[in-house]
Predict the 3D structure of the following.
Amino acid sequence: MKKIIFASALLCGLLYAQGTPAVEITQEDIAIQNKISDANQKIESKSVEDFFEEFADNYGIEYGQTENGKTFYSGYGDVTKKEGSQDFSRALSIGYQRAIANIQAEFIKDAFGRIANEKIITYLQDSSSNAREFEELPKGGAISQIFDKVKQLAGAKLDKALSDLGVNVEGLTEERKKEIFRDEFISESLTQAYGNMSGLVSVQTIVTQTSNGNYRIGVIAVMSDKTRAIAQDMARNRMPSIKGKGGKPIKEYLPKEDKDYLNEYGIRLVYDENGAPVILSYGTWGFSKDSSTDSRILDRLESRAKETASTNADTAIMEFVNTEITYSNKQTIGDLIQTTLKETRTADNVSLSEQSLDEIIDKSSSQIKIKSSGKLRGIRTLKRWTYEDENGVVFVGAVRAYSYANYLNTTQAITPKDSSTTSTSQKSTTKVQRSSNMVNDLNDF
């Protein structure tokens, strides 16, 4: 396959003079990819688990299993707020980001993870003849001195004397405990991982409810040789090495109405009518709308929310290009059977009691750190939208898209013109400035 030679003096020094070999994909690949990325498809309401299973059955894939250079992943994020809450729109956006973070962490753990485990079994049984006896209290202690005084005083004289000493006689007790039986099993596992990933594309998302009535966002994502190649080309600002024979105009992937954007989260990979790959990113957010709030303030809140949505969209694109992930998870499990003898001593009485317990130990703690960075050149805003649902919750969003055509166009705008330069390579890519939506598929990855 011959190499594509890029000869634009205008961009010399900014771009590679020679692109990487173009990897041709079939029209069938593009058709499947674009169909699954079409935002106008309808998804029936179902549980997250059913959603994952149905997708796997329909496309014959197994999550986490690499086949034909593609690996599919699934994950979900719980939504903190209830439907109808003014914060519901923001909670949904965060829920999606949680889902993606869980998928990223799962990949890093499987690819680069290390696990260390320690198990401890402890057994203690005290059947001694004096097992139910406590040692004598040490002489000269504060409690011991009080008890000595108690023997010498009685009634009101006792109360007054102790009060003079600064002692409140009400409820004055001393307790001592000792263990006479313990059977304990503890297993501690520490899993840690660190690594980079690129080319993760969300294929399809669903917003649904759990059996308890809480909302959850499920995400299916894929990473393949092709998506990694596209991400590497973006990182190096070079002409895509993945090329098709033609898809359709990007605007045809967009939802027809603003309300249809409510289910759109994260990035999608589509191909435009020229066969060039385009990364679409849906960012969403919201703001609290109160009837008593000044209208001018509401306008500013809406503008600020749209900026946040745009930032969320850009962040998703940067994570596609390159993401650095640190993962740590500690699990402690086990069981415990314990018998404890307790001595309760008051001013005039000593009593013994026995306490028994049996419990299951189940503790966990985890931390995921995700870092990404990159240049925004080549990313354009395709649409900003606002929608208020039937519960009065305000959703806002921004659709951002990266294409090599956008990169060339922006570079041309900031590069001084040379009258001797003819930039013929930028002509055919100016149409790739629109966005697509929701759900990705197989053969095109």
Q: What stands out?
A: The first strand starts at residue 23 and ends at 24. DSSP finds eight helices and 14 strands in the chain. The longest helix spans residues 295-321.
